[in-house]
Design brief:
There is one protein chain. This protein is α/β, with parallel strands linked by helices. It is 43% helix and 17% strand. The chain folds into two domains: 24-298, Alpha-Beta Barrel (TIM Barrel); 306-414, Sulfite Reductase Hemoprotein, domain 1 (2-Layer Sandwich), CATH 3.30.413.10.
C-alpha cells in the first residue's frame, strides 16, 4: 500500500488552484473571481427588532463576518431593513446585508423599495419562490427588482425545500434511461438542475452572470461533496458553500469542516457559512470563528494569530499550560479588532504554548513567539523563544501576564503601523 513516504505518491504542498468563477461584487467585497473565500453568517433575531438585529449584525461583523444575511419574511421585517442599515452606518459598520426571501419575496421587495435598495444582495430559493403557474412570474418579479436596483442574487436550492416539479421531471427522465440512476443521484440532479435552470432563466431576464451566486445545500457530508463537485464542473457561477442544518456543538463543527474542507481543497467555493445551531446562551459569532479557523488552518486566509498548543499527556499533569493557552487565545482574539486597524500583517503571527521539554522548545522555535512550560518533575522555568531564538526565561506566579505582555510588545515592534 502506498504511503506518504512512497516516492510515487504526489501529495499537494497546499490547496489546489481555485476553480475559476465569475466575480460578483457586493459592496467592498467580491465573491469569486480573484477574490479570497469570503466568510458569511446569518442573524437569528427577529428582523423587525431593529435594535436587536443591528446589535447582532455589528457583533458578527466585529467577529469577522464579511457578509451578514437577514431573514426578510414579513412586511415589518422588510420595513426594518433600511433602518437597520442606517443604524449600522451611524456606528461605522458597513458590512453588506443579504436579504433571505422565501414564498413572498416578490411582494416584500415590490412594496418596500427602501428594503430592496438597502440590501446588498438577495437570496431566493427556487423551491419556494412560487408554485405552479405563479412560479415564473414571481421569480421574474424578484429578478426585475434586482435589475432595477443593481443587486446580485444568490439562487440557493436546498434539499429540504427542493422544487417538486423538478423532482418529478427528473424521475420521468430517469425512467427513460437505459440504465436508470439510483434515487439519490436523481435527487442530486434535481437539486443541481433547479439551481442551474433558475440561473439560466435569470440571465434570460437580463441579470448578468457577474450578479449571480449559486448554492445547492444538503445536510449530509458525502451528498454535499457529490453535489458541489458536479455543480462546479457544470458552471462558472460563483458558489456559496454550506452544510445546511449542520447541528449543534462539535457535531456541527466536525460535519461542516469535513464537507467544506474537501471542497475547498479541490478549489471549489467562493463564500462559506458554517450553519451551527448555537448552544443555549452561546454567541452567534461561533459560526464566524469556526469558518475563519477552517480557512486559516487550510492556508486559504489569515484572520487572527494562530496558537499552537500541545494536547497534554502524563508528562503534563498540571493544567497550567491549558489555562495559559486559553488566556493567550482569548487575548489575541480580543486584541485583533484593535490590531487589525493599527498593524499590517499581524494576523499572520504564530504563537506556541507547550507543556513540557519533549516538543516544547522545538515547537516554540518554529513560531514567532513560543513558550515551553515545565512538565511534571521538570525545573520550574519556562523558556520563551522569539523568532527562533531563546529570548528569556519566565518563572513564578505571573507567567501568564508576563507572556501576554511579551506578545503585545512583539506586535508593537514587529508589525508596521497601517498608513
Amino acid at each position: 500500500m502506498s504511503t506518504a513516504t512512497d516516492p510515487t505518491v504526489s501529495l499537494p504542498a497546499g490547496p489546489v488552484a481555485r476553480r475559476r468563477s465569475v466575480g460578483v461584487p457586493i459592496g467592498a467585497v467580491c465573491i469569486g473571481g480573484d477574490g479570497p473565500v469570503v466568510v458569511q453568517s446569518m442573524t437569528n433575531t427577529d428582523t423587525a427588532d431593529i435594535v436587536g438585529t443591528a446589535r447582532q449584525v455589528a457583533e458578527l461583523a466585529r467577529a469577522g463576518s464579511e457578509l451578514v444575511r437577514l431573514t426578510v419574511n414579513t412586511a415589518e421585517a422588510a420595513a426594518a431593513v433600511p433602518r437597520i442599515r442606517d443604524r449600522l452606518a451611524m456606528t461605522g459598520c458597513s458590512v453588506p446585508l443579504i436579504g433571505d426571501f422565501h414564498y413572498n419575496g416578490h411582494l416584500l421587495l415590490e412594496r418596500e423599495p427602501a428594503c430592496a435598495e438597502a440590501l446588498a444582495k438577495y437570496r431566493i430559493n427556487p423551491g419556494n419562490v412560487g408554485f405552479g403557474k405563479k412560479k415564473d412570474t414571481q421569480f421574474a418579479a424578484i429578478i426585475e427588482t434586482a435589475l432595477r436596483h443593481g443587486k446580485p442574487v444568490r439562487i440557493g436550492a436546498n434539499w429540504g425545500s427542493i422544487d417538486q416539479a423538478m423532482v418529478a421531471a427528473q424521475m420521468d427522465e430517469n425512467s427513460r434511461r437505459a440504465q436508470p440512476w439510483d434515487a439519490a443521484r436523481v435527487a442530486r440532479e434535481a437539486l443541481i438542475r433547479s439551481a442551474l435552470d433558475s440561473a439560466a432563466r435569470a440571465e434570460e431576464l437580463g441579470l448578468p452572470r457577474e450578479r449571480i451566486v449559486l448554492s445547492c445545500k444538503v445536510s449530509g457530508v458525502q451528498e454535499l461533496i457529490a453535489v458541489y463537485r458536479d455543480l462546479g464542473a457544470r458552471c462558472d457561477y460563483a458558489l456559496h458553500l454550506g452544510l445546511t442544518e449542520a447541528g449543534m456543538g462539535s457535531k456541527g463543527i466536525v460535519a461542516s469542516a469535513a464537507a467544506l474542507a474537501v471542497l475547498l481543497q479541490e478549489g471549489l467555493g467562493d463564500t462559506i457559512r458554517i450553519s451551527l445551531t448555537p448552544e443555549p446562551g452561546e454567541s452567534r459569532t461561533r459560526e464566524v470563528i469556526v469558518a475563519q479557523e477552517l480557512l486559516q488552518t487550510m492556508g486559504l486566509r489569515a484572520f487572527t494569530p494562530l496558537v499552537t498548543a500541545c494536547p497534554g499527556c502524563g508528562r503534563t499533569t498540571s493544567t497550567f499550560f491549558q489555562e495559559l493557552a486559553r488566556t493567550v487565545q482569548d487575548h489575541v482574539r480580543a486584541k485583533m479588532p484593535e490590531w487589525r486597524i493599527k498593524y499590517d500583517g499581524v494576523e499572520n503571527m504564530t504563537l506556541a504554548v507547550m507543556g513540557c521539554i519533549v516538543n516544547g522548545p522545538g515547537e516554540s522555535r518554529y513560531s514567532n513567539i513560543g513558550i515551553s512550560l515545565p512538565g511534571t518533575g521538570e525545573a520550574p522555568a519556562a523558556p520563551v523563544f522569539i523568532d527562533g531564538e531563546k529570548a528569556m526565561t519566565l518563572r513564578g506566579e505571573n507567567i501568564a501576564q508576563e507572556f501576554v505582555g511579551v506578545v503585545d510588545d512583539y506586535v508593537a515592534r514587529r508589525y508596521a503601523p497601517r498608513q
